[in-house]
Design a protein that fits this description.
Elements (H helix, E strand, L loop, with lengths): L17 E5 L2 E2 L5 E2 L5 H7 L9 E5 L20 E4 L2 E4 L7
Parallel strand pairs: 1-4, 4-5
Antiparallel strand pairs: 2-3, 5-6
């Protein structure tokens, strides 16, 4: 029952300046723990590399930050995570 726009111009994922990404938990390196479906990792991995891709920014509360998020080879780290307490920027990310 979530309302969706009926009409509108579609914009390619790669044509945005930033993409907001939901998460369950994150660490100081901006690795995220999602819902386990891999949708966002596959979508982020499909983007061009370098400065011509949108910044991937997680949205979370500060209490969702943990010491370490386990990583698999297909996991794509975020460029930053915006929280109620501030912004965590990943070393080596697009925004660093």
């Amino acid at each position: 029952g979530i309302p969706e726009p009926v009409d509108g111009e579609l914009v390619a994922f790669a044509d945005h300046d930033a993409v907001l990404v939901p998460l369950t938990a994150f660490d100081g390196r901006c690795h995220r723990l999602g819902q386990g479906g891999g949708f966002y990792d596959r979508a982020l991995a499909s983007l061009p590399s370098g400065r011509h891709r949108p910044a991937a920014i997680g949205v979370a509360y500060s209490f969702q930050q943990v010491a370490d998020v386990p990583q698999d080879r297909w996991d794509v780290p975020l460029d930053a995570v915006a929280t109620d307490a501030g912004i965590v920027i990943a070393d080596g990310g697009l925004l660093a």
